[in-house]
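ingest -> validate -> predict -> emit
validate: passed (alphabet ok, no gaps, 490 aa)
predict: started
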Amino acid sequence: MRSLAAVLVAVLTLTGCVQTPAPAPTPTTDLPTPDTTFRIVTTEKPATFDPAAATTSADAIVALNVFSRLMLVHPDDPTPKPDLATDCLYTSPTIYRCELPAGLVFHNGHALTSSDVKFSIERAYRLSVPHSSIRLFDALERVDVVDDRTVDFVLKWEDSQFGYALATPAAGIVDEELYDPDAVRPNEGQAIGSGPYQLVTTADDHLVFDRFTDYKGGLTGEIDAIELSFVADSAAAEAAMADGSASAVWRSLTTAARQRVAAEARATPAPEVVYTPVELADSRVQRLVFNPASAWRGDPTIRSAVALALQPDRSLASLVPPAVTDASASFAVGGNPEVPQIPGQRLRLTLSYDSAVPDQRDVAGMVRDRLESYAGMSVQLTPDTPEADLLLSERSAWVNTAFGWLQPYVDDPLPGSAAKVQELVEAARSTTDAAQRTALLAEVQAQAAADLTVLPLSLASQTLYLRDGVTLQGYPFGPGWQLGLWSFRA
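emit:
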């Protein structure tokens, strides 16, 4: 903050004469006004504002803050709790009933009733956007409206995990009067939810969220207006920290930038602006995924060659982080495995990575180097290309449970494994016996290691930087470490 103060005192004393005082200076009217905008800086930009279509952590910022869900799950305490609902419970092994409070409204003033809940869940399931959280609803048979404030989720089989699904982005409740039941809502149409924040401004380089004063859930925010600002790269995020224009920085700095920020903080005795890192350890798994549409995915020799070439550098032995309940080490790590040679002409593959994610380009380069050096392949890097043969993924699960972390594999198993995997997952979700669930999920993880369609590489952290005076309170993150605007205090 700059302050400008000036005091001018002139006293002219002449023997035998008194000078008339000079007129007071005119106050300056063009002084700069301090920028008080609460600004969160990130390199990752949402592709959709429709909760049913959310597939990335950036999408989830909009989905989880603008749209209410019936349940709430915190990643550090993965026990479902009511959010918008007053209560949700099993009235029978296959009926999950939720009660709503009176007087719920959307941001546009429309009443929110059980009919909107039914519409929203059935719409998300109908759209079934790939890589969204909708696969966690696999047990759902239908949604019944009991009355305006009571809804029953009728399940095809006993699913002890159904409450978790109702806490994820795809469970966001939309206004049935506005949303198309058969199509994803384009971003040109205003996003209307009932969450703690409403999206009031959309621009290419930022979004603005205003606090919704009529929100009736468990995630009430306090900051009246929050700007989510999109910058080009880590350097731009680092610059926003240097000039103090960022209230918080989310996931945007490269490893080198984080080291520079830490070193500068240690070296400067009394910095003008202080940023405190909030480290979310082991909250992302770096994976290499065979695109189901790739012509090479069905060849077990190619899958094995890719897995073995990466084995010496692999630091994670499962698709589920080791600290998560029901994690089971199943992938080989380390050593110097013999990589099978692919017969015929040198194989050419394409590898995609997300250019907005810090350090992803470096990881992709390492993967290419190993595949070309040890597996005799030629690998072309094609950033932001979902059609590539191999996809480098570095996002957290939709919910911090073994089921959430296994979803990328369970979503697209090999044809020969699909029935077995579905049966194991169904049995694991049905049982209330913890030991039995652990054993069943260990089989799923062993099958993932046999199929080699999704390969764990390493654990990654997410870092949130908070400017001096900014804190987090309550449940700061969504069910899989997604950023919650509701938690900021300043």
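The longest strand covers residues 275-290.
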